[in-house]
Design the sequence.
């Protein structure tokens, strides 16, 4: 069994989708480590949304419990642009293992996300020239990866460089071939940390991809947009069946919103402008979603934003999900009880199925 620790829910879902490509049976758990007969067990700690001390404590406990299951290897899934408490959580995980060497392969060249000469680029632009500079919780203030992770002791190396006997290495990569070279360069003495491209390269060493079955989205359908990315906000402004989250959720707003889903069999709830904190907004969004799902007899939901997804699932008391379809990279459809749930990182492109449903 492969064990994956993901610091947010969309990251967990992304690796679930990649695992599905290889015909692997996957189980996704929220916070708790459950015994399973799955080939891949993914635990979402949601630690990216916690403070540093809580994030380290959660990581520590999850690793302890995973080690009892004796997985073939543990992969730590982090944000591809290194947001979150990356180094702190890595060190917490190291305390539970005998691994003193860490390889971080955060770059996703297949998505235009590369690291070259110590700097992070997105589609050949420095990350400081993109929307990540205005991230509400982890704004990117420098393109240099050492400064992004705020640790001067990490080494940033190319795959052709000599590897150290201990310490933390951040891998440079500008192509898929670079990622494959990194996957081939390391052995079981390394702690493996990274994003989707690196995990794919590791699976390629032992598994073959398999075609997936066709599927159809169910209705009524609810689209929950918790992302702060302007591109998505502008797209939603062009659509109908939209209800913007008010500062105070009341019965009048819920009735009006549920009328939309009853008339159109679909609904978007989104954030327009608000002075509330990110935590307050996602908490309010989760409570609103729970009410709408119950009143509207919703069969399928689509959630943008990892922290929003985790808040919604917590509100719905969902702790385990079974991934069933990968719509596209990072956009994965899962099932919990009778509800289908698809999640997507805010910065990834919308899948065609969702665009077609709401356009």
Sequence:
């Amino acid at each position: 069994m492969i064990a994956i620790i993901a610091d947010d829910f969309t990251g967990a879902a992304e690796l679930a989708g990649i695992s599905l490509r290889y015909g692997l049976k996957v189980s996704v758990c929220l916070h708790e480590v459950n015994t399973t007969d799955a080939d891949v067990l993914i635990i979402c700690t949601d630690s990216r949304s916690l403070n540093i001390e809580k994030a380290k404590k959660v990581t520590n406990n999850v690793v302890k419990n995973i080690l009892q299951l004796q997985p073939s290897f543990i992969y730590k899934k982090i944000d591809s642009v290194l947001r979150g408490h990356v180094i702190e959580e890595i060190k917490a995980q190291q305390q539970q293992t005998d691994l003193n060497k860490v390889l971080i392969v955060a770059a996703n060249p297949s998505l235009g996300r590369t690291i070259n000469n110590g700097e992070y680029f997105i589609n050949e632009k420095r990350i400081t020239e993109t929307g990540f500079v205005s991230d509400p919780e982890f704004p990117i203030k420098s393109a240099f990866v050492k400064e992004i992770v705020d640790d001067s002791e990490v080494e940033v190396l190319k795959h052709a460089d000599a590897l150290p006997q201990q310490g933390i290495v951040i891998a440079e990569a500008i192509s898929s071939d670079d990622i494959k070279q990194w996957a081939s360069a390391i052995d079981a003495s390394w702690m493996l940390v990274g994003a989707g491209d690196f995990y794919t390269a590791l699976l390629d060493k032992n598994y073959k991809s398999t075609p997936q079955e066709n599927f159809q989205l169910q209705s009524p359908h609810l689209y929950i947009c918790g992302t702060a990315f302007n591109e998505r906000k502008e797209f939603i402004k062009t659509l109908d069946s939209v209800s913007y989250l008010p500062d105070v959720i009341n019965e009048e707003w819920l009735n009006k919103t549920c009328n939309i889903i009853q008339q159109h069999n679909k609904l978007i709830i989104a954030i327009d402008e608000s002075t509330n904190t990110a935590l307050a907004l996602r908490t309010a969004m989760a409570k609103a979603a729970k009410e709408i799902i119950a009143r509207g007899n919703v069969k399928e939901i689509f959630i943008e934003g990892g922290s929003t997804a985790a808040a919604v699932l917590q509100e719905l008391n969902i702790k385990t999900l079974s991934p069933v379809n990968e719509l596209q990279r990072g956009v994965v459809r899962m099932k919990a009880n009778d509800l289908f749930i698809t999640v997507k990182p805010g910065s990834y492109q919308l899948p065609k199925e969702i665009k077609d449903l709401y356009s």
In short: The first helix runs from residue 9 to 21. The first strand starts at residue 2 and ends at 6. The chain has eleven helices and 18 strands.
